[in-house]
Structures are given as C-alpha cells and as structure tokens.
Amino acid sequence: MSYLGELSLERLEHEIVQLAAHVNAGMCRWLELVAEFDRREGWGSWGCKSCADWVAWRCALEPRAAREHVRVARKLDDLPRIHAGFREGRLSYSKVRALTRIAKPESEDELLELAEHATAAQLERICRALRRVSTAEANEIHENRYLTWFWEDDGSLSIHASLSPEDGAMLLTALDAAHQRLRRNSPEVAGSGSAEPPATTEDGGSAEPPVPRRATNADALVAMAQTSLDASEADSGARTELVVHVDAATFARDAEGRCHLDHGSAIAPETARRLGCDGAVALLSERAGHAPNVETHPLSVGQRTRAIPAAIKRALQARDGTCRFPGCENRLHLDAHHVHHWANGGDTSLGNLVRLCRHHHRLVHEGGYSLESHPGGDLRFLDPRRRLIHEAPRPPDGDADQLRLMADDGEVPWPGSGKRSDQELAIWILANRSAAIPG
Hints:
alpha+beta
C-alpha cells in the first residue's frame, strides 16, 4: 500500500468517489440477487424462518441490518427510476433506503430530484417527516413498544427499546435536558478528552475509568433515573435499596475478595466501598454450609448502622454546598463520603464527612485518588501519584524579561489592573518568545 503515498490528492479524491459509485452499483446487484432468492424462498431449505434470517446468518450481518436490506430489495422492482439510479451508482444505499420508505411510482421523479440536492443525512430526515402514518399504523407501533434489558458477561447492563415516535421524541428531549443540566453543573475537568473504555478488574468486576471525561447520554440516562428515585423517596420517605454482597475483610481493605450485586453481577471492591459511603447498611453474618456445593446460610441480620441522620445531612449541605473536590461546582446528586471510612473505624460525624459528586466519588474510590483530613478541617486531595491537588493552584512563574517589557511599556497591564492592553504588542512578544524556543 506504500504506492498510495505517491498519489496526488486529486487522484486520491477521484478514486475514492469513483469506487463509491462502484460500491453503490455492487450493492444494487447484491440486493437484486437477495430479492430473487427471497422470491424463490431459497432460505427455507436452510431451516431459516425468513430471508432476513438467512441473510444475517449467511452474510454475517446484524439481524436488524439484514431485515432492512431485505425490505429495500423487495421495493426495488416497484420503483424503476430509483432502481436505475441505484444500479448506475448515482444513488447510495443510504439514500435508496430512505427513499423506499415513502416512494411510490407516481412520486419517484420528485423524490429523485430531492435526492440529487440533499445529503444522505438530510434526505433521511426529510423522508421521515414526509412519511404518512395511518391511525392503524400508529396504534400498531404503540402496541408493539417494548424495553428489554440483559446483563453482559462483563457485568454491564445492555438496554434495547422501541418506542412510538412521540414517546421517543419525549425521551430524547428528556435526555438532552439531563445532558445539558449535567454540563451546567459538572464543568469539564481541564484536559479531559473523549471517554476511555470502562476498565475491569482482574476478577471480572466492573470498575469505572480513572480519568475525567465528558458527560455522555449514558450519564444523562442515569441522572434521569436518579432524579426519579429521589422524587419517589421524597414522596414515600423510604430510601431505595441496592443490595451488595461483600465480606467484611474485603470491605475494610484487609483482603481482596469478590463483591457482587444481589442479582449476581460482579463489581470491584472499591465500587462496593463507594456505594457503602452514603447508604443504609444491613449487617449479614454468614458461614459456609455443609452442602456439597458449599452454599451460604444467613445466621443473623443486625440493626442498620452508619446511616447519616437528617440533621447531619442538613449541616453537611449547609457547610459544603457543592462537591468539595478542587475546582468542582457540581450541586446535583452529591454523595456523603466518609473521609476515614466507617468500615475502618471512622465515625458518622460532620467532621468525618464530605460531599462529593458521583464522578469525583468514583475517582476517590476506584480511580486511585485520595483525600486527607488535617487539623482545622482542611481537606487535601491527592492524585494517584500522590501529588497535591490545590484548591486554587497558582499559575507558573512568568518570563521575567517578558513581564518587565510589558510593565515598562505601560500599555499591557498586569492581570487584574483593569487597564486596557495593547494586543499587538502582546502578540509580538508571544511570537518572538515562541520563535526563541528550540524545536
């Protein structure tokens, strides 16, 4: 492939576009073959329930994509002009897919003209809006709505749903509102980029990524769920319970063992410790049974302990207001964190508690960050390399010659002086300074 580096940009662009047209024509030919195979019901001899099932199996496609390919293949013979444009490579599969949802023989000319002047994304939006839905179709879509979920092998939860258009739009609007609220209340940490994939522990338990990241739609969905639970708890006065199984030695960091949720998914020990910071804990004593499979049998359930009283919560809120992690102004869904963890003998008192947002609470537990309490109530946060995270870090020392030149000129002020600056001089100074830096 080294010869590609010798091609001019014009040649590269020409070949990319030309091959895209060939791909379009090839896709049209493939769909014509699929349509004929479907008409002959060739898929039945393989024990498949439909042509889409056969295509997904034989051609290694995702089932939903296979069903959409078969739908488009069946439509081509009824739309000769769209079919011809597809066969000649002038229409992409994305455009044909959108057109076949609404096109009829009498509307082909108008839609083809529209397709020539719109991108695939624009055409998709236009066709969705132009599609006519009968009352019967609307009722069928509503009746067929569903939401399913299942636990993945790594312990994560996968959700799949199909909603009516109006319910789907409402969900997306709510997600967007939750996303915007997260962005307003959880400023991005300087230097954060795209999220890294979630980490997992050696024993297969889930563990959050230790790096700061931007809020995602997944964060917005969790925030919506938390808001719903908060409202429910406010109405009923009862807290929602999440059951976590972890042995005492692992919880107190005296040993490393397995932790799992009540439904069976494994989590990291630090995740269990974080969840235990601000939740009611029921003590459960267990011992190994005598059955061959070594089941456990509960002996006694102790009184709930370590729950934070309402008076302390109010005082904690009044004292901290926001997340106490340096630079964080988040005020939503804050957890009460025990500075000296209660599993290691820490008490549930105002002096041993601090409010942290969910993101920084994870960093303190799973992310390797830590905090120390010092006399006078000072808290010191440390990163995984044990470097102090200052509440208001001072900027690095400036270049003495540059600062002297700016001060002597009298036009470029010291920061905070309120005087108007000479932007041209400032740019000249920075440009000359940059030019003097090696490399």
